[in-house]
Request: fold
Amino acid sequence: MNSLALGRCNAVIGLQWGDEGKGKYVDLLASEHDAVVRFNGGANAGHSVVVGGERFSLHLIPSGILTKGRLAVIGNGVVVDPDTLIGEVDGLAARGVDVSGLVVSDRAHVVMPYHKSEDSLREELLKSQRQVAEEGGLVEIGTTRRGIGPAYADKVHRTTAVRACDLLRPAQLRERLELVCWAKSATLSPLGEPDQPPSARFDPSELAARAAGWGARLGPMIQDTAYLLHGLLADGKRVLFEGANGTLLDVDHGTYPFVTSSSTGVGGIASGSGVPPSALNSVVGVMKSYSTRVGGGPMPTELHDDRAQYIRERGREYGTTTGRPRRVGWLDLVGVRYACMINGVSTLAVTLLDVLAGMDGLEVCTHYEFEGGRTDRFIPDAADLARARPVYERLPGFSADITGVRRLADLPREARRYLDFVQEAVGVRAGLVSVGPGREQTIVV
Ligand code: GDP
Ligand code: IMO
Ligand code: MG
Reply:
C-alpha cells in the first residue's frame, strides 16, 4: 500500500476517543507485516474486524491474528486479564483461526480480579457523589470496569503488582499474593462493602490456584518480546503497532481526567514494546467521519437529537466491549488536528464515510469559542473543554449509498468535498477511505 509510505516499522493510531476503526485497518495492513503488536491498554479495547462477512471482536489479541502466519504480540505496556485472554484464544480457535502466532511479554502486567472489583467500586462511589459534585466537577469516568486503572496503578505502585513472568513462578507468587491480598484488603476495605470481611474478598490461596492455572495455560506464549521484536527488525521483517483506545483518551494528552490509564498514542510504543521511536517509519492516523465517545467527559460537538440517533444506528455505534450506546456528534477537526500533531501522523485513514449518506447537510467543527475568543487549539483539560463551544463550517451532504464505491473518483462530489475539507483543515493527506466494515470496502487513494 504505497499511498501510506509504509516502512519496516509502522503504527495505526486512533485520533479521537476510540472506536475509530483501528481494527479494520490493522487487519487490512497485517498482510504487509510479519508481526502486529499491541503496546498499550487492555481488555478495555474492542476492535471489530469483518472478514468474509464474519465479524470478530478482539479485546486483547492484536487484530493481526486473523491473518495467517503473522505473529500477534502483546507487548509489555499492555495490562492482561488472563481469563479474557484465554477466552479470546479459545473463541478464535473454535472459529478456525490459527492462534499459534500469539506471544505475550513476560513483563506485561496482569489484571487481577481485585483490580476489576476496585474499578467498579470506585466508579460506584463516585457516581453516588454526582449530586454533590460541582458543575464540571469530578464524577465517575464511565470506565469499562475491566480493571484497567487499578492494574496500571499497581504497576506504578510496584510492590503489589503481578506480571506475566510471575505466573511462571507459582510458589513465589503464592507467597507474594499473601502480602498483596493483605495490602489490597487493607486499602480497599474503607472503599466500601463494610459488611463483608476483606479476607473473604481476596483469598490468596484461591488467587494462587487461579494464577497457577493461568501460568500453565499461557506459559508457552510468555517470553521477552523486546528481544523478539528487535530480532525481527534485525532480520528485515516488518512490524505493525496496533494502538488501542484513542489519542483523546491518552493519560497525558487526552481530556484528563476523563481518559484511560495508558499512553495511547505513538508515545506509548517505545515504553510499551521496547522498540525505540527512531525505528518508526510511518504513522497511520485513523479517524471516523464524525465523533463518538463512550463514557463521561466533555465532547464539544455532541448531538442530542435525531441526527445522533441516525448516525448511531447506521454506524452501529454501540460499544464492542460494554455494549453501551456511544455518544455521537459532528466531526471535531480541532481534536483531530491536535491528535495528528501529538502523533506525527504521516497519513490519515478515514472510516465510516458511508454512515453520513442521507444527512441533510454536514457540519464540521473547525474552531472553538473559548473565553470570549476563537481558538484553533484543542483544550485537553476536561473542565476547560466543557466550556468551549464549537464553531462549525456547514458542508453539503450526499445521499447516494457509497458502500460499493472503490475509487475516489466514483464518490459523490459532496463526499469528495468533505474529504478535501478534512485534509486541508488537518494538514495531512488521506491515504485510505473506508466505506463499510469489510476488508474490501476500502478506497486506496
Ligand atoms: P476500533 O476500536 O478503533 O477498532 O473500532 P471499533 O471496532 O470499536 O468500532 C468501529 C466499528 O465500525 C466496527 O463495528 C467496524 O466493523 C465498523 N467499521 C469500520 N469501518 C467502517 C466503515 O467504513 N463503515 C461502516 N459502516 N462501518 C465501519
Ligand atoms: P478501542 O481500542 C472507546 C474509554 C471508556 C472510559 C475511559 C476510561 O476500542 O478504541 P477505562 O476502562 O480504560 O479505564 O475507561 O476510556 N475507553 C474507550 N472508549 N474505545 C476504547 O477502546 C476505549 N478504551 C477506553 O469508555 O470513558
Ligand atoms: Mg473499539
Remarks:
- Residues 170-188 form the longest helix (19 residues).
- The longest strand covers residues 361-370.
